[in-house]
Amino acid sequence: MPRNRFFHCLTLAAAFFLLWETQASAYETRVVTDHANTPLFQLRFFDQGEEYGNALSETEGEVSTWQLSAAQKDAVTQAVELWADILGPGANNAVPAAINVGTMNEVNADAISVANPTWQGTPWEGASGLAGALIGDQSMNPPAQIRIGKMNFSIPDIPSPLPTGNGIDLVGTLYHEMGHALGISSLALVGEDDDGNPVYGFDTEISPWDRHLVDRYGVTPTTDMEVVRSEPETAPGADPVFTVGEMTESGVLFKGTHVSEVLAGALNGGLPIEGFEGDSLDLSHIELDRSLMSHQDYRNYQVFMEAELAALQDIGYTIDRKNFYGFSVYGDNLTLSNGQGYFARNADGTAYLPGQPNTAAYGVGLHIYGSGNDITQTADLLACGTAGTGIRVDGEANTLRIAPGVHVSADGAYGTGLLLAYGKGQNVVSRGEIRATGTGGAGARFDFGGSLLGLDSGLTAEYRGSYIRSRTEAAEDESGNIVTQLYERYELLDELKGPLTERFDVSGPLSGNAAAIYIFRNAWVKNINIVNGAALSGDIISDWNPGNSDVQQDQAAANGDDLLTSLSFGRLAAGDGSATDAPDPDFRLRYDGNILGRHSIRMSVGGGALSFNGRAEVLDVNVREGATLSGNAEYTLNALDNGYVSVDGTFTNAGIVAPGNSIGTITINGDYHQTATGRLFTEFDASGTSDRLAVNGNAVVNGTLYLAPLPGYYAGSLSLAPITASGNLTEGYATNLLLDSPTLEMIATPQGGTATILSSRAADAYSRYAANGNAANVGRALSSAEGVRDDMRNLYAALDFSAADGSTVRDALSQLSPDAYGNAALASFDMHRMLSDLILPGTFSRAPQKDGEWHVFAQPYAGTFDQPGRSGMGGYDATNVGLIGGAERSTPGGLTVGGHVVFNHQSMTGDANGKLRGEGLYLGAQGLYAPADWDGWNVFGIGRLGVENWRMKRAVSFNGYNRENNKDWTGFSGSVRAGGGYEADWGTIKAGPFAALDYAFSSRPSLTEDNGMGSRLHLDSETFHSLRSSLGVRMSTNERQLGEHATWKAHASAAWNHELLDKAGTMHASFVEAANAGFSNTVKVPGRDSLGLGAGVRFNTDKHVSFSLNAGSELFRRDATSVYGNLAVEWKF
After folding, report:
1. Is 753 left (phi over 0), alpha (psi -120 to 50) or beta?
2. How many other β-carbons are positioned within 10 Å of the β-carbon of residue 196?
3. Using CA atoms, how far apart are residues 759 and 744, in angstroms rounded to an integer?
4. Residue 926 and residue 905: Cα distance in Å, rounded?
5. CA proximity to 447, closest of 327, 617, 300
6. How far is 275 from 263, CA to CA, in rounded Å?
7. Helix segments in 529-600, DSSP class H
8. Among 1026, 1004, 1031, 1032, which residue's Cα sits nearest to residue 1086?
9. Of 426, 444, 434, 429, nearest to 576 (Cα)?
10. 671 — alpha (psi -120 to 50), left (phi > 0) or beta?
11. Taking a C-beta distance cutoff of 8 angstroms, is the pair 636, 669 a contact?
12. Coil, strand or helix at 553
C-alpha cells in the first residue's frame, strides 16, 4: 500500500477548494447506493486535464494528469460500494456524500475528507467530512477526494477475500484509503523548533480517532499535547505527553467499547497502531497482522476485520457488525466451543434469523486470528454472499473442529467454505458439511493469497507462503530513477517454516463448484485424510509445486520436510473424527471429481473401498493391502527427484484394483506394480467386454488376477483382454475365476494378459432344483434351448446368477410354468360341480309337484376353493360368485324337468403365479324321474354348456427379473351328471343311497402371451377332461308346518367322489424367445378321492313363494377345501 499522506483540515484550504470546485470542468457522475438502493455516495470522475480541486493547497487546484480507464473507474466504484454495504443501513445523510476522483503522477494514492470550516466549535470539529455527513447528516463542504497516482495497478478478475494479481490491488487500495477518509486518521502535527528539528504534537483539534488512542502509559491525546518519540523502555516525563514508539512497536493502542467486545481480552484490549515511520508520525494505521488497514509490506486481507469495523463503531458510525462477522477469535491458546451461528439479519440489524443464509458480500462466519487455539464450531455458518467465507483461519497452530451436523456454507458467487490463509501447523477436523456451490466456489481453500501491494508495483512489498518469502524493495539508481530489486528468497519468518496445514481430516460432506479442495501455489498442505462418512463433490486441485523457485527447499530440508501432500482415503477415524494410521475396512466412497496435483500429491487408499471416477494427475498411487480402488479413471503419474526428495512415480497395488464400477477401464500413464498380495479384479460380460487395466508404461503383475462374470447369458467361448501394457508386461500372477452359480459352469484359460472363457450348462442344470414335475419340465427346456435372444437372455442371467443353493431357481421354475392355465381348467371343473350340487337339491326338494305347476327360481351363490400345490403342479385359490335362474315343472308319471341359465364370475390366484379373472354364461337342463310305482327309486340328471371370457395375468418376479405376461381368450366348458338312487320313506324322513357319474370339460384355444418379454409362453390349444364317480347317501325331511302360513323342509347328503381319469390333459408350451425350448406339462386333477357334503333347508309360504338356503363342502381332497352356498327364491304358478 502506498504511504498515506496525513493532511489536516485548514479553513483557508477549504475555501480555496471551493473556489477551484466552482471552476472545475464537467465530470462523470456515479451514484453508489446501499443494498436498500438508498443513495449514499456520489462519485465524480475527473478525466485527464480536468481540475478537481485540492483541499490541501492554498494556491491552486489539482488537474487529472492521466486518464482512468473504464475498468479502473469500475474498481473505484467497487471499493466505494463495499463501504456503502457496510455503512448504508446506519447512515443518516439525506443527500449522497460527494467524492471527487482524480489522478496524479506520484507513486501513491490517497483519500481525503476535510471538515466543513463551519463545524469549528461544534461536536463535529475534528471529524472527517464524510463522518459528519454519514453520521450526523452535516453538510459536506468541500467534497471528499480520492487521488490515484501512477502505479502498476491490478484489478481483480473475480471477488476474493484474498488479494490476487501481481500489481497493487486497486480495489483493496481504495478500500483502505476510504478508511482514512471516513475517519481513521490522526490530527497529530509535525513542525520545527528554532534549530530546525522536527517537533510533534496535537494542536487545537483532536479527531474522534485520536480520542481513542492510548499510549503505553495510558495517556490519551488532548489539545496542545506534545508527542514524544521514545523507545519502549523510556520512562514517561513529568509533564503529560503522548509517547509514541517506532512503527508497529509504537506502544499505542486504539481502545473502545466495541473493539473491547470483539477482542475479548486479547491484544491488551486494543488495536495496535502504527507510530513513527522515519520522520513521519503516523497514528492512522491499524497494525493487526497483515491487515488491510495496516502499513505493513505484506497484507493478505481484502476487507476490514471485525475488530477494525468495531473501531469505526467506536468513532461514531452505526454498523451492523454482525452482518459481516459471526464470531472472531483474537486470543491465543484458547479452547472453546463456538455456538454462535451466522445467518441473515433481521430488518433492524439486531438479531440473526437462524437457517436463513447471510448474503453480505465478503461476510465471514468464523474468523480465527489468534494462534494455538482449539475451536469447535457447533452452529451453522451460512455465509452466502458474494466472496463470502464460512470460516477463515489465520495465526499459527490452530485446531479447528467442525461438529457433526453443522453446515458451513458459502454458496454465493466465488464463496469459500473453509479458508486457511496464513501460518503453519494448522489442523482441521471436519465432521460437518462444508460447501461452496455458487459460481467459482471452493469448498476448502488453502491459500496465503497474494499481497495487496503485489510484487510488480514499484513499491516495497512482500509475497509469502509455506517456505516462501519474496520481497521487492524500491530504491534510486545513480540517475535518481526508482528501481525495484527482487529478493526471491528473503529471510524466512518462523511462522512460514512448515506446512500451512498439518492435516485436514474430512468425515462429512465437502463440495465446491470450482473445487472441493483448492491448494494455491504458495500453500503446502501436508496431509489430507478422507475418512468414512465423507462425501466429495468437486475437484481436488493443488497448484503447490515444491520445485518452484520461490520455495526455499534448503530450509525445508533442514527441517526434514518433504513438501509433498499425502492424500489418503480410508484411514480409520478416531472418536473425535481425526484420522489415525490404521486402515478402516468399512470405508466406502464414490468420488467423481478430478485430482490434479502432479507436482505434490501422493495418493493412497489405506482401507475400505474407493470408487474414483475422474482424472488423477499425481506423483504416485498406493493401494494398501486390504484396500480396494475401483472406478473409471485415468492416472497420470509424475516421477519426482528434486535433490532432497524422490518419488518413483509408480502405481503400486498391494490390495485390490478393480477397473470400472461395472465394466470399465483404469488407464495408467506410467508404470504399474502389483505385489504378491495385490489382486486385480476384472469383470466381464456375456459379449466378451471386460474391465481393462491399460498401462501406458511397464507393468509387473504378481499376486492374483480375478475374473468375475457379470450377470448375463453365457454360451460358448469368450476371449478377454483384462491387462494391456505399452511397455514390458511381466506376469507372475495366478488366475481365479469368481463364479458361484447354481446352474452355469465356466473354465478360464489365461495367457499373455488375455483369458479364454468357456461356458456350459448340465442337462439338469435347472430341473434338479424344481419343486414339482411340471417345473422340472420347464427346467429341462431351459437347458436345451437354443438361439436365446432378446429379453430371454436377461431371464437366464437372473437364473444363472442367483442363490448358489438353487432356491431362487426353484421359485423361478414354478413361476415360469404355465400351471396357471391348467389350474384355470381345474377351477372350471370345480365351478360346474358346485353348480350341479346347488341346483339338484332344489329339484329333489320340490318333487313331487302338482302336474302342470311351474316353479321359477333365482339363486345367487358364492363359493371358494383352496387347492394347495401337489405333485406335478402348483396350487391355487378360486372364488366364484354368480346367479342361477331356472324353471321346472312336473308331468304326469313322476317326471320333473327344467332348465337353468347361469352367469358366473370367477377369480383365481395361483400359489406360484397367475391371476385369472373371467365371466361365463351357461345354459343347462335338469331332470328327475321318480314314478310312484318305483317305490322310492329314482334317476336324475343335469348338464350345461357355456362360453367363457378369461383374462390371465402371470407375474414373474425373481432375482431382479420382473415381468408380467398377459393374455385374454374365449373358451368353452360344460358338464353332465347322471345318476340314480333309492329313498325309503320312514314317516318323518326319507333317506337312501345314490350313485352318479359326472363329466366336465374345459376347452382353450392356442395362444401366445402378450408382454412379459423373455418369460412369454406360447401354448397349443387344449381341451381338459374330468370324469368322476360319486357314491353316497341322501336324506330329507317331510314337509312340516311353520306357523299358519308356512312350511319347511330340510335335506342333507354325503358322497364319496373318485376321479376316474389319470390326468385332465397335457399342456404343450414353449418359450417365445428361444428355439428348441418346448415342453409339456401334465394337468392332473388334485386328490382323486374326496368326501362331498351338502345340506339345505326350504321354506314354503301360502303366497306361492318359497325360499331355500343351501351349503356344501368337499373334504379330504389332498388338503384341499371348498365351501359354497346359495340363497334361492322361487315362485310357483
Report:
1. left
2. 6
3. 7
4. 22
5. 300
6. 21
7. 553-558
8. 1026
9. 429
10. beta
11. yes
12. helix
Quick check: 637 and 620 in contact, CB under 8 A?
A: yes
What are the counts of helices (DSSP H) followed by strands (DSSP E) for the chain?
11, 87
Alpha-carbon span 494 to 499, nearest angstrom? 11
Q: Whole-angstrom Cα distance, residue 825 to residue 1003?
A: 8
b/e for 756-766, b at 16 or more Cβ within 10 A? ebebebeeebb
Closest CA to 895 of 843, 949, 970, 817: 843
C-alpha cell at 640: 519426482
Q: Which H helix or E strand runs over 81?
A: helix 70-87
**Could you give the CA distance from residue 74 to residue 273 in angstroms, rounded to a whole number?**
31
What are 1102-1133's pLDDT values in tens digits? 667 777 787 778 877 765 666 766 676 766 65
C-alpha distances (whole Å) from 1031 to each of 63, 981, 998, 1052, 1123 are: 130, 10, 11, 14, 20
Q: Which amino acid is at 1048?
A: W
CA 780 to CA 786: how far, in whole Å? Answer: 12
The x, y and z cell numbers of residue 545, run together, are: 509445486
Cell 384355470 belongs to which residue? 824
What is the β-pairing status of strands 679-684 and 656-659? parallel
Query: How many Å apart are CA 174 and CA 177, to the nearest integer?
Result: 5
Closest CA to 994 of 1060, 930, 927, 1055: 1055
Is the N-terminal amide bond of 750 cis, ω within 30° of 0? no
Q: What are the pLDDT digits (tens) for 170-204?
A: 999 999 999 999 999 999 998 888 888 889 999 88
* Per-residue pLDDT tens digits for 544-564: 999 998 999 999 999 999 999
Cβ neighbour number for residue 121 with a 10 Å cutoff = 7
**Which residues have a Cβ under 8 Å from the Cβ of 733 and sit 6 or more positions away?**
674, 680, 701, 702, 703, 704, 705
Query: Is residue 760 pLDDT above 50, yes or no?
Result: yes
The yes-or-no verdict on residue 20 having pLDDT over 70 is no
Half-sphere exposure of 388 (CA within 13 A, CB side): 36
Q: How far is residue 654's CA from residue 607's CA, in Å, rounded to a whole number?
A: 11
- Considering the chain, what is the average pLDDT of its residues? 90
Task: Report the chain's C-alpha Rg in angstroms.
Answer: 49
- Is the pTM higher than 0.90? The answer reads no
- The 8-class DSSP code of residue 851 comes to B
Q: What is the dihedral of CA 159, 163, 167, 170, to 10 degrees?
A: 60
Nearest to 366 by CA among 311, 286, 421, 295: 421
Amino acid in the structure at residue 463: Y
CA 295/CA 285 separation, integer angstroms: 6
556 class by beta-carbon count within 10 Å (0-12 exposed, 13-18 middle, 19+ buried):
buried
Top-confidence residue, 1027 or 238? 1027
Q: How far apart are CA 912 and CA 873, in angstroms?
A: 10
Residues found in the chain: 1133
Query: Tens digits of per-residue pLDDT, 215-231?
Result: 999 999 999 999 999 87
Q: What residues form DSSP beta bridges with 699?
A: 672, 729
Grid cell 512415480 is found at: 649
DSSP structure class, residue 303: S
Measured N-to-C along each axis, helices 170-181 and 70-87 cross at an angle, to the nearest 10 degrees, of 50
Q: Is 565 within 8 Å of 602 (Cβ atoms)?
A: yes
One-letter amino acid of 542: S
- Alpha-helical regions (H) of 266-401: 306-314
Determine which of 178-187, 235-244, 326-335, 943-952 has the lowest per-residue pLDDT on average: 235-244
Across 615-623, average pLDDT? 98
Nearest by Cα to 607 from 573, 638, 641, 565: 573
Q: Decide: 1104 and 1116 in contact? Cβ < 8 Å.
A: no
Q: Could you tell me which residues come within 8 angstroms of residue 367 by beta carbon, excluding any fewer than 6 positions away?
A: 305, 306, 325, 327, 328, 329, 391, 392, 394
| Residue listed under C-alpha cell 476510504 | 178
